[in-house]
Amino acid sequence: MGNSDTKLAFRKAVVQLTSQTKPIDFNDDSFWSQFWNENVTGIQDIFALIPAAEVRALREECPTNLATLCYKCVEQLVCIAEKSCSTQMEQTTGNY
After folding, report:
1. In the prediction, which pLDDT does 60 show?
2. CA distances from 29 to 51, 75, 96 (A)
């Protein structure tokens, strides 16, 4: 990840996912957008900032937040794929 402020913000968002007593609103874009920081440089950063024990705790204690995070990740991937492919043929075949 780029700088320490970015790491801290990402880490705080992860902690907030596991510490909330009620589910975080699906439509709270200001919260969910913290995970799509443009300074994320690689998957290693994500694994370093979200330890396996925390994912397990999220699964056990806040399954709704985990489900929403997964949904939001897929939603973000779809958005990226649509922006990367300019035609329906490119989307279907993967040739671009």
Report:
1. 92
2. 24, 12, 30
40-51 pLDDT, tens digit each: 667 888 888 888
Structure tokens at 91: 């989307």
Model-level pTM? 0.75
In degrees and rounded to multiples of 5, residue 74 shows phi and psi of -65, -40
Residues whose CB is less than 8 angstroms from the CB of residue 8 and which lie 6 or more positions away in sequence, other chains included: none
Report the length, in residues, of the chain: 96
Query: Which letter does DSSP use for residue 24 in this model?
Result: P
CA distances from 3 to 11, 51, 75 (A): 12, 19, 26
